Amino acid sequence: MIADLFFKVKDIMTVDFLKALPTESINSVMNKMIRAFKDEVIVMDENEHIVGLFTKYDLSKIKKLDVSFDEPIEKYIIKDVLVIGPDFSVKDARDLMIKKNIGRLPIVENGKVIGILTANNIRDTFYIKMNELFDFQNNIIDNIHEAICISDSKGNVIYWNKSAENLYNIKSEEIIGKDIADFFPNAMTLKVLKEKKPIENMQHEPVKGKSVILSAIPIFNSSNELIAVVTTDRDITEVVNLSKQLESEKEKVEFLEDAYKKEISKKYSFSNIYGKNKKIIDAIALAQRVSHTSASILITGESGTGKEVFAKAIHEASGRTGNFVAVNCSAIPEQLLESELFGYVEGAFTGAAKKGKMGKFELANNGTLFLDEIGDMPFEMQAKLLRVLQDGIIYRLGSEKGIPTNTRIIAATNKDLKKMMKENKFRDDLFYRLAVVQIELPPLRERKEDIKDLINLFINQMADEEDIKINSIDNSVYDVLENYNWEGNIRELKNVIQRMVILCNNGNITINCIPEYILNVGIQKVEVEENEYDLQKIVEKVEKETIIKILKLTNGNKQKAAKMLNIKRTTLYYKLNQYNLS
Q1: What mean pLDDT is predicted for residues 112-120?
Q2: Which pLDDT score, from 0 to 100, does residue 91 have?
Q3: Which residues contact 81 (CB under 8 A, 6 or more apart)?
Q4: Does 426 reside within a domain?
Q5: Could you tell me the CATH number of the domain that includes residue 389?
Q6: DSSP 63-98
Q7: pTM to 2 decimals?
Q8: Looking at the 3D structure of the chain, how many domains does it have?
Q9: Which of 219, 241, 263 is the last residue of a domain?
Q10: Quick one: how many helices (H) and strands (E) in the chain?
């Protein structure tokens, strides 16, 4: 029953959806829709990758235009299509459709469309699931220890659970439909109906010899009219036991909630790591294989390649119930690192907190401790870390009492640890303890085929975050950014894209949005790669660079610039247009 409350889109999606190629005519697609009684067609390329959507609404718009129905459908489709996976919850899908004001969502798995979710699917499923939910809720209420009574606006009882039967020895069939005052002349329900105010945690004696802690809550409709009163009663003698039980049940609920989140994260965490480069695909595959083990992992790669993203993905997929805790070994002073990792007791050193402090190992118990920049860990501290990895026991600073820990270690570095080992700057035994599995992440310059997809991903993310509508992206933007070295890797690319989205003109991203230090390098590489011996292109390059330089000197004064260049102003305008210089 609980699983039914969290059903997935794959349970209700339509699998017999219509397909069309972007080259098919409007007339052909329209006839398909009429014959199949469908409101939409999913437009795909020859490899069955989604290109866009075409709906009856789009068809109605076309009919108002002077357009030949023999034209290809490609220019009239919705190209910016949101898609979701088959394990997306229906609730989340519905919320997304409402937020984006869309009536349908294609369902994609492994790059292929396997179904479509429409508002009709959700509506048809709603009534069935609501009945199941009501039955589920009634079953819960019947098994709650509190006596629960619900009365309508006239004081007639409309619900009386089993605990109420046991507490007052009145069967539900005896009281439902009757006035509550016939059974309880001093019922708090009557007071709430009169005053329309809630009563909470009040000691009360509904009948002689029966003392309870009672709450009576008025229920109002959307028009602020009182429609019911809900009361909950419990014997005072059970209050202490109830407190303990509620605390236990609260922990169980939190545990189940946490387990549920981890189950969802387990299915989706690796999906936000993008790439078709072989090295990154191999790294993802290896990370997925070892995520469920207890093996220590060492992630290597340049700064900004996504080491912490990988570490979090591994933790989420591991099924471990504890927290993911990250520590940057280079950001914490040497004298504080030990207390940060292992914690300390009261009086351990001057300035120590009165009750002591829990260390990162304890915080990550049954979870994952991510040690970033492990190559910067002081040599003496390395020996203490090694001992914990060997024994599984930590000692807080100032204490001789060992604390067992079940913490999975994932370390990361952008340094050459093997070289440091030869220089006696990193312990051999610690390296082999940490690098049971080693995952190397390639720099972005070795992932040229991924740059365009990452650009589009970050543009969409930043546009949503900054609430900026992006209308177009010049192809030249991709050429320039793909030919830049990206010393800062993905982190640098993301920051540059954020700047471009914020500073773009009217939602149009052109090469003018690219920072100059990248633009100069990128354009030169593109032009050299096109033809380093093409005389015309060399001349154009010199002309372009000279015009840019003179315009900067004249602060954009085109008349002065033309004079300095010894050309007519009309010629300068022609050149500006020719080279797409604003």
Answers
A1: 88
A2: 84
A3: 50, 52, 53, 106
A4: yes
A5: 3.40.50.300
A6: HTS---TTSBSGGGSB-S---B-TTSBHHHHHHHHH
A7: 0.48
A8: 3
A9: 241
A10: 23, 21
